[in-house]
Amino acid sequence: MYKMMTPGPTMTAPSVLQARSREFVNPDVDPDFCEEYHRVCTELAGLLDTRNEVFILGGEGILSLEAACASLTEPGDRVLVIDNGIFGRGFADFVKIYGGDPVLYTVDYHRPVEAEALREFLEGDHDFKYATVVHCDTPSGVLNDIGLLCPMLKEYGILTVVDSVAAMFGEEVHVDEWKIDIICGGSQKALSAPPGLAFVAVSPEAVYAMRNRKTPVASFYCSLLTFLDYYREKWFPYTMPVSDIYGLAEAVRLVREDTDRIRRHHRIAAAVRDTVKEAGLSLYLDNGDAATVTVIRVPEGIRDSDIIQTMKEEHGILISGSFGVLAGRVIRLGHMGNNANIEDVAQMLTALSKTLKQLGFSCQCDMGKEFIKRLP
Ligand SMILES: *Cc1c(COP(=O)(O)O)cnc(C)c1O
User: Fold this and answer.
1) What is the C-alpha separation between 173 and 164, in angstroms, rounded?
2) Would you say the pTM of this structure is higher than 0.85?
3) Does 138 sit in the ligand 1 pocket, CB within 6 Å?
4) Which ligand 1 atom is nearest residue 60's CA?
5) What is the pLDDT of residues 198-242, one digit of tens each?
């Protein structure tokens, strides 16, 4: 088996795998399960610094994005889709599927959204039911300052939906202070559980908007309305994936214990970026790299697939390419969750130096050693 240094899924702790193999109860019938689910939701809310209610959904991270759009969008609703990356733009599809009218605010993909430029746009047009924005848009690794953007959108009376799937637990998140109405997360990124679960934290304002719809939600599985009363009624809209939730509970426990987590992500990410530049490679972004992933331009004359294959087959380390408009142009090094540790990242960088050399690009340093030297 290889080390999975991708920007999700990430490497999973043995205790999380063990928790998933525990004998399980009937989640529809046994009220103890409802208590356990509720406890994990409450712990997630604590980590996200919110008093809003959290719901864990049975499905991958993408489900949380679609569920937010399905639950808020009514036919004809104008929705502001903030687009400086592939996931950012992708929200427009969900809005359309549920009958909404997405209005794209498209800016350069090489840097974060600028708050003041967005404000100028909003001065001209702010008639939106809600806005969508991605915290870390993983294909490019850009980190948007949702702590600035969301409170500003709320000043204009716009609800906020944030995709923080690839940022939360590796970057600071303060849902209440930042006025985020629905934040979306997943199990397989910095939380380092296997893929399979999504979760959302939903504000009272978003609940109000959902409960006061004029038309029903055009989905059952994607409707958050079906979850709102689960705890009072001890009822779930479908059988919860109980083993996945046992694993998630253990992953949440580990994250709660790891108090140095955010600082470590930042320390490692800064050293990786400095190292990559020192080696003579170039980062995809002008600025605003997230602490969870580093995105590097593929050197001239080399194929991304050759880098990835050599890394996997000769060095036992899986890294990733990208997709959409970035396909073939960049490689991505994941350092989120359990992967944000010095040993694995140093090993990945040493292997990358060797791989590139083999393929015809000589780095100006041994990146593994340089990384250790540059750790702040
Ligand atoms: C991983 C990811 C998701 C969820 O995608 P899945 O394919 O369900 O894992 C959503 N948004 C971003 C920014 C992501 O990186």
Assistant:
1) 9
2) yes
3) yes
4) 8
5) 999 999 999 999 999 999 999 999 999 999 999 999 999 999 999
